[in-house]
Amino acid sequence: MSIFKKFEDIQVWQKSRVLAKEVDHITKREAFRHDRRLKDQMLGSSGSVMDNIAEGHGRGGNKEFKQFLWIANGSLAELKSQLYRALDKELITESEFSDLYAKSDEIGKMMSGLINHLKNSGMRGTKYKDD
């Protein structure tokens, strides 16, 4: 059995959604018009974080959920690197960088905590509830 009935109940998914919306908002600015590749990469990696959390949950097994949380964590690391690139290109301010990076760190810690919880819970997932 899973501790969450819907992926929308997962707090780390909720925070990842907020982060993706903030990245979307920032990349709509004129500064990103000349670097569409970085814009698309940032949108992709930030969206991938929340999408992989949802997909992992949707698989119905905690083993798969943990694997997709690790994938989401990789996408989060990718976004952090892209934030540095955006800062270095002066597409975002130091303040924006710090805010988005701190939010990314918080999400990463939450994912690690969820992975550890799933490892230690003894639950196998909703697709095994009849076993």
Q: What does this 3D model show about the protein?
A:
The chain is mainly α and 131 residues long. It has one domain (7-122): de novo design (two linked rop proteins) (Up-down Bundle), CATH 1.20.1440. 73% of the residues lie in helices and 0% in strands. The chain is built from four helices and no strands. It has helices spanning 11-27, 36-58, 62-88, 94-121. Helix 1 runs antiparallel to helix 4 (94-121) and helix 2 packs antiparallel against helix 3. The longest helix is centred in the C-terminal third of the chain and has 28 residues, at 94-121. The chain is elongated. The model has no long low-confidence stretch (mean pLDDT 91).
Task: Summarize, please.
The mean pLDDT is 91. This protein has 4 helices and no strands.
Describe the secondary-structure layout.
Elements: H1 11-27, H2 36-58, H3 62-88, H4 94-121
Helix pairs in contact: 1-2, 1-4, 2-3, 3-4
